[in-house]
């Protein structure tokens, strides 16, 4: 049960990085085994039921399986006290064997990169390794970071290396389609006033980037009855080379968009055969079907107005032979959307109307789309006239921002094709200070 430690190493002395550490007592050669992690094998539920201190002794060894100290008296024998460093000298040779990545001198602290074995359950941790390549914050999903995957290739825990091999990737150059938008958050100067480094690529377009891998994996089946829930965490800027990755998790895909520095800009979960969120069939007649006001008559987007608004519907016809400019903008080449004979409407194009309906009904300052959960209920084919209807599900405040949750339905002549939970910040925290 106890971990094994090389006689050339000593654990538990005070560390300059954090708490107690693991140190080389004498020189250790590259490739030499430094330690073998011990503990009890438990499943994830058992792990999460343990006291926090004991959970800290854990390493994952396979999907759903962990090595951990189960009792207080096992804590010391199981712990290696190996600290994280963004420039580590110890990596994994298997799931439990830790080996020197380079020659280590006597007295040096032995460190590993937690990305080499760590898992998403871990809460973000500030890094104090002090190395030139320090990434500042250590997160449980760092194992997906493209630069780390390249830099530490061959030193990842075996089960993470397996995950890497299952990861599907798609790289593209982001393009801000909204520079002429009425939403000034896509304008470089306005976005900078709100603390962003340039105009934001619209969330609906980042959503379109996320669609590529599920659409490739599942084709029309996904768009006829699947779903995708996406959250936009951090801006994507015009010209960024972004990397989209998808990890198969059971029948689902767990997706991420990262910017060139490795920051996670968006996360999503896509499913081809989702559990029904609510079993009721969707009837578009349950949504308001009036017309939006004239542009100049739109009331300002206040909490009061949105709470009581009867939102007017918007409509558009999908024309397969007119789809190319949109598909070019969102960098989409799949024949599913390009083939003019059997092309279906792109889910990112359809999601744009969830934005349109908000803009058509209220006058907004700079605003930000933050989240969408789309349940696909049917295909939209060439010539289909799609009407988008919405009602306000909630208006709320968080962190000084004011949010609106829309419950959106899209239908073609009464046949529902999508139901969307669409969330936006309609008033940014600093809107008053910076309003002109
Ligand atoms: Zn660091």
Properties at a glance:
single chain, about 425 residues, alpha+beta, Beta-clip-like, Thiol Ester Dehydrase, Chain A, 2 domains, 10-stranded antiparallel β-sheet, 4-stranded antiparallel β-sheet, 12 helices, about 30% strand, binds zinc ion
CATH top level of the largest domain is Alpha Beta
The coarse silhouette is elongated
Number of helices: 12
Q: The CATH topology of the largest domain, please? A: Thiol Ester Dehydrase, Chain A
CATH architecture of the largest domain: Roll
In what order do the strands lie side by side in the largest sheet?
14-16-17-18-15-20-23-22-21-19
Topology, pairings included?
Elements: E1 4-5, E2 9-14, E3 20-24, E4 33-36, E5 40-43, H1 44-49, H2 52-55, E6 59-62, E7 65-68, H3 72-78, E8 83-84, E9 90-92, E10 97-100, E11 109-112, E12 125-126, E13 137-138, H4 146-151, H5 158-166, E14 168-173, H6 188-193, H7 203-225, E15 227-232, E16 241-249, E17 252-258, E18 264-271, H8 303-308, E19 314-317, H9 324-329, H10 335-338, H11 347-361, E20 368-376, E21 385-398, E22 401-412, E23 415-427, H12 431-434
Parallel strand pairs: 8-11
Antiparallel strand pairs: 1-4, 2-3, 3-11, 4-10, 5-7, 6-7, 9-10, 12-13, 14-16, 15-18, 15-20, 16-17, 17-18, 19-21, 20-23, 21-22, 22-23
Helix pairs in contact: 7-11
Bound molecules: zinc ion.
């Amino acid at each position: 049960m106890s971990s094994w430690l090389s006689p050339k190493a000593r654990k538990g002395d005070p560390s300059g990085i954090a708490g107690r550490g693991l140190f080389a007592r004498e020189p250790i050669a590259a490739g030499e085994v430094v330690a073998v992690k011990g503990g009890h094998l438990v499943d994830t539920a058992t792990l999460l039921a343990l006291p926090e201190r004991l959970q800290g002794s854990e390493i994952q060894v396979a999907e759903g399986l962990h090595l951990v100290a189960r009792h207080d008296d096992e804590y010391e024998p199981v712990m290696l006290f190996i600290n994280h460093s963004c420039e580590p000298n110890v990596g994994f040779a298997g799931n439990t064997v830790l080996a020197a990545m380079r020659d280590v001198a006597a007295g040096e602290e032995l460190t590993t990169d937690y990305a080499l074995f760590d898992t998403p359950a871990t809460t973000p941790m500030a890094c104090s390794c002090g190395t030139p390549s320090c990434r500042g914050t250590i997160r449980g999903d760092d194992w997906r970071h493209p630069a780390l995957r390249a830099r530490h290739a061959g030193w990842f825990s075996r089960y993470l290396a397996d995950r890497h091999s299952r990861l599907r990737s798609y790289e593209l150059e982001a393009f801000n389609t909204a520079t002429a938008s009425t939403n000034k958050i896509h304008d470089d100067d306005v976005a900078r006033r709100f603390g962003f480094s340039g105009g934001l690529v619209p969330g609906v377009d980042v959503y379109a980037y996320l669609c590529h891998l599920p659409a490739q994996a599942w084709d029309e089946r996904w768009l006829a009855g699947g779903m995708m829930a996406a959250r936009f965490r951090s801006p994507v800027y015009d010209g960024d080379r972004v990397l989209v990755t998808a990890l198969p998790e059971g029948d689902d895909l767990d997706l991420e968009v990262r910017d060139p520095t490795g920051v996670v800009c968006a996360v999503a979960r896509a499913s081809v055969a989702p559990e029904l969120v609510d079993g009721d069939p969707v009837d578009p007649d349950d949504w308001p079907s009036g017309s939006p006001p004239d542009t100049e008559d739109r009331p300002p987007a206040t909490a009061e107005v949105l709470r009581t608004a009867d939102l007017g519907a918007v409509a558009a016809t999908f024309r397969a032979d007119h789809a190319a400019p949109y598909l070019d903008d969102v960098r989409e080449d799949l024949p599913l959307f390009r083939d003019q004979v059997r092309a279906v409407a792109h889910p990112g194009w359809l999601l744009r109307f969830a934005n349109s309906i908000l803009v058509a009904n209220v006058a907004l300052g700079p605003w930000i789309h933050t989240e969408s959960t789309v349940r696909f209920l049917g295909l939209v084919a060439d010539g289909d006239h799609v009407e988008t209807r919405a009602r306000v599900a909630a208006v709320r405040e968080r962190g000084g921002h004011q949010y609106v949750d829309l419950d959106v339905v899209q239908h073609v002549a009464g046949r529902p094709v999508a139901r969307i939970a669409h969330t936006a910040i309609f008033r940014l925290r600093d809107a008053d200070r910076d309003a002109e």
